[in-house]
Amino acid sequence: MNQLTKTALCLAIVTALNGCMVGPNYEKPAHVSENNFIHSAELDQENAKSKKTIADMTQWWRSFNDTLLVQFIEQALDQNLTLKQAIARVNQADAQVASLRSQLLPSGQFNAQATKAHISLDDLTGRVLNSMPGFNRNINLYDLNAGLNWEVDIFGGTRRGVEAAMAEYQASQASVIATQLKITAEVADAYVAIRTLQARIAIAKERASTQGKLVDLIKLQLSRGIVPEFQLRQAEGSLAEVQATIPALENGLEMAMNAFDVLMGDQPGTHRTKLEKRQAIPVAPSIDTATGPAELLRRRPDIIVAERKLAASNAQIGQAISEYYPKISISGLIGTITTKYGVLFSSDANRAVGVVGLRWRLFDFGRVEAEVAAAEGVNEEALAAYRLTVLKAAEEVENAFSTVVKKSNEQRILASGEASLAKSRDATLAGYKSGALSLLEVLDTDERLLRMQDATIRAQSDSVRATIQSFKALGGGWDAQSFS
Prior knowledge:
The chain is of the alpha+beta class. It has a single domain (about 15-110, about 155-325, about 385-480), classed as Outer membrane efflux proteins (OEP). It is built from 12 helices and 4 strands. The protein has a 4-stranded antiparallel beta sheet, with no helix packed on it. Helix 6 packs antiparallel against helix 10 (about 300-320) and helix 11 packs antiparallel against helix 12. The protein is elongated, with a radius of gyration of 38 Å.
């Protein structure tokens, strides 16, 4: 063995013992600013005004104090079909990790075979053998052997593959959590939408009733020559306008209920009985603004998915680089083979084989270089995707916080206006009873009040739904410590 061969052998042994892995080691991207969100201070002020309980982020839907909503969410998490698909992908990724890890270890096999043959004397082989003394046409052959194959992962290509697969597995786990949070928010949002439409339909029917009474009154006045005809036509037009909103709202309610059932993983109409009884829009709890941008990186599952995919792409660079280096494999076989059963394990029947192999893509470096460049390109894309995911997450939080604050302010203004109109209606009704005001003025005040109530309900609904989106945007709905 010459000096160069000895040196190469020693280098290979040392490298194997040290567990060398080619390619860049992964480092997480730098964290974002520790500052609070832009609208955190406004939201804190809103929390102080409302004096509502701050929700537990891990199970925020329970803080709405709506038993039916809690039941629906828990049922959806148990049977939603989109979530079942995500869970199935986790199982696939887990199997991929196990498959790649097994490649780091030797693979063995055991074979046992007993053969009994009766040789033909009419073919060429039989004629030749038959010419030999002592030839026996009946042959027995017994063969037992155990084999071993192992490709030694000297330069870490397989280990980088395991690293990439493990990161993909973790990404699939986070995807399940992201799906859970999405479903939770969608069920809560759909539930609030249903309660909102039910309330608006009730108000629309009241408005139609009020407008109908107004039309009847104007008809009576017209018949007595008190009012001109155009007032009747205007009142009829207003009545038709209000009446037309009812089918549109009812159709929206039908569609919302059907979408709700599909979210639950059921046929449309399944939960109609539970939902058809009108209930108030649930009151949203306060949002904990302590979850800042830095905490968002740890809590948002879609950010975790993007970060784990970035880690996987980094490992795949090393996997591609390992193809520049030779692959060394070790194979062995021990066993026994004989034509006589009684001497199966005798020394004369024993056999053993050992093989050391070398595989090297020595004249294929152009293709390897292209594979490395492709892996680096995927890594750059994954890094950009991660950064964009972080920015989009922050945008969602800011938009949700802003909507909560603005819609809450709008709701308060409308509620104040509703209170004023309610007092006006009471005063108008008292004036009508005393004979100072006409029924026409009473009905007109009722119509104004009902319009204001509809606007108030819409603002309340928007505020509650924005709160739901805030919990979703903040990654609420799971214990982030369990993934750390």
